[in-house]
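thread: overnight batch results

M.L. [08:02]
morning all. the overnight job finished for the chain we discussed friday. pasting input first so we're all looking at the same thing
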Amino acid sequence: MFNKPIKEINAEYQAEEQFLPSIQNLIRETCINAGMTRKDAAAVTLAIEEGVTNIIRHAYLYEKGFVRIRIVIYQRRIVFSLMDTGRPFQPQSDTKLDLKKLVESGRKGGLGFYMISKIMDSVEYISAPGFNELRMTRLISRQPEKARLFMGRMFTLRVKFSVYTFVIMLTIIAGAYILINERSVKGIREHLHDTVTALSKTMAAQAAGFVLNRRSDVEFDELAISYIEANPELIWLVIVDSSDYILADTRDIRNLHKKYEPPENIDPTAVGVPQKFGNGDRELYYLYREVKSGERKIGGIQMVYTGEQYLAEIDAERQKIIFLTLIGLAIGIGGIYLLSNYFVSPIVRITERVRKFSSGDIETELPLEGVEEYFEISKALNEMMSRLRRDRENIIERERVAKEIEVAGQIQKMLLPGKLPEVPGLQLDAFYRAASRIGGDLYDVFPIDQKRYCLLVADVSGKGIPASLVMSVLRTVIKTQAKGKETPHDILEAVNNFILDDIPPGIFITICLGVFNSENRTLNFVSAGHNPLLYFKSSEKRVELINPSGVPLGLPLDRPEDFGLKLREQTLELQEGDIVFIYTDGITESMSRTGEKYGMERLLNLFRERIALNSSVSPKEVTALVLEDIDRHAGMAVQNDDITFIALKCCPPVKTESELRVEIEKHN
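M.L. [08:03]
and the structure it wrote out:
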């Protein structure tokens, strides 16, 4: 099971150093994804980089080439193969790489392969004519990574806080203990030396009397022994005469009257100065004091003493202090752990809250408690959550509004004629493109009766929902008011009277409305503040603008009848080939990226140069030409207004059955 590859990766790079970062990323990600620790992944990446670098610098020294990388991942190991077609690293017949020999020879590159061999668990170099492969195997060790994760979970913030605080306290206490102990020992030693020095002076004065009075050996011995017994810090005591012959010796009475020999490493001339000397593990001090009679030396006292008794007492106290300190530390650790609850618990709650936030919960708030810093953090986090919550609500609301606008736009498009009616004597085409999701333009063509048809293009001021609502109402009102009316003037006047009180303030409507009579092929039309109608008279090859006077719908006037009085109606007697183009200002005000308007002159030139010269052009072709010219002018600029227009062309009249019959008879 373990010998079956889990995955195989093959890659090929040009043998150039600029591709080394890509190779490093490939190796690193592969190792980590295979379960290798980051430390091992970094080491393997370094080894592969060294191998590729050697191929670039040595195998392809005189030529360019490619290096192929094959990575085979097994359950417990990864096999890396670096393949090239350059010069072999070891051209001899022996295809096994002798790494040790390379290192010993000091050849350039040998140390690199030595490093590779140290990082990889096995390295093999295979060379054949035109093909070289450096194969390296690295075992996967996952245990350290898991162990680190386990330890990381064990050491929570509270435990870390307690451990670090304990270590700091222990360091402070240990440092204070060492300092105090050294000062105490030093003070005790100084006190010991002062005590023994004073004792030596007293004893020297007493011994002087014994020497001058020629006391017996027994009396000298009793004097020495009495001092030894009375002063436990004294180890031994020797009294000598002026010639250093022993008068009393507490070490051994058999030394009496023998020449005194001071201990080794002791300066016998140092009078009254404590000298430390070794005697096994014991800390001993030596003191010499002259016995004088006036200024004359009549003898001497050598004494050896120690502060072991004091030190033992200090050790006993020290142990008590250590014991009490350990008890205090144990209590302190408990206190620190409990205290950590006070400081760490808010952090834990904040951390848990952040985790919930990352999982999508922005409703739950943190309690405002704890010290001031935690209080401020919790407060700031709650405020951030509140802002995010409001933003999310606003986003939802905007999405809802956008959805509603999208639906409104779809409904608005449904209100526009899906298919223009068949109008005898006319070819028709219409176009509508809103600048935003919903627009304020309108076009319509509908029959009024059997021979008359109403054609209109309107533009509601502004854009968006208010304009679209007005447009929707306007379309219905026009259809309703057109019934029974004879002229476009009557229709538009009735429409204005109907909607005047219902149009919101600040909104008005420009409209060009015409009535086409299919029987006599006349077009009567009015313009309520709309763009001039563009009329191409085929017989004269002439393009002209016709704009009868009128004011927009919905404008407040002094008298209601003023609208009808200002509205002028005009009649066009259409001939075969004549073209009428009714449009909104979205065409003439279409802007390029530099802010230049399309303009009326461009529209006129388009008709004069491309439409007027083609007598067979259809309304659909007019639509295509106009849109092509507008889009070419606008380029990538954003459309800033709705574009709406109707193009109609007068075509031969439809013959009646009697006319067709007469024509057939003439033909026969």
